[in-house]
Design a protein that fits this description.
GO molecular function, one term: cytokine activity
Order of helices and strands: HHHEEEEEE
InterPro entries: Cystine-knot_cytokine (IPR029034), IL-17_fam (IPR010345)
Number of domains: 1
Largest sheet: 2 strands, antiparallel
Distance between the termini: 28 Å
Shape: elongated
Strand order of the largest sheet: 1-3
Strand content: 25-35%
Structural class: alpha+beta
Subcellular location: Secreted
Number of helices: 3
Keywords: Secreted, Signal
Family: Belongs to the IL-17 family.
Number of strands: 6
Length: 112
């Protein structure tokens, strides 16, 4: 049972990585999400660029692993920012973003 679930997860991961050229997560959600956001904010920028804590994707390649390519998000700025409220210009709100980590099942090639 565990092996079947593992193979399903692996196939889905490989499908996502293989069908996306650069930014796998953004390419998947780009369709509906970016249209709604661009109407609300009048911006063509991607979510990763407009965020209070913008990020970029770093390609991690390992030829001894399946999938061989995994994209890792990297913060573009510090994890703290301060913004002014629209209603109260004297009050400041401090925000903090925290990195999110997720374990991804991979297969390793056996060395002979």
């Amino acid at each position: 049972h565990f092996i079947f679930q593992f193979i399903q997860i692996l196939c889905i991961t490989m499908l996502i990585v293989s069908t996306c050229n650069c930014n796998p997560v953004i390419n998947i959600i780009k369709g509906n999400l970016s249209l709604e956001l661009s109407q609300d904010y009048n911006s063509e920028l991607l979510l990763k660029e407009r965020s209070l804590a913008p990020w970029t994707y770093e390609k991690k390649q390992d030829n001894e692993r399946v999938p061989q390519v995994i994209y890792e998000a990297q913060c573009s700025t510090s994890h703290h920012c301060t913004i002014r409220s629209k209603n109260k210009t004297s009050s400041l709100y401090s925000l903090e973003s925290v990195p999110i980590k997720a374990k991804i099942p991979v297969l390793r090639k056996k060395s002979s």
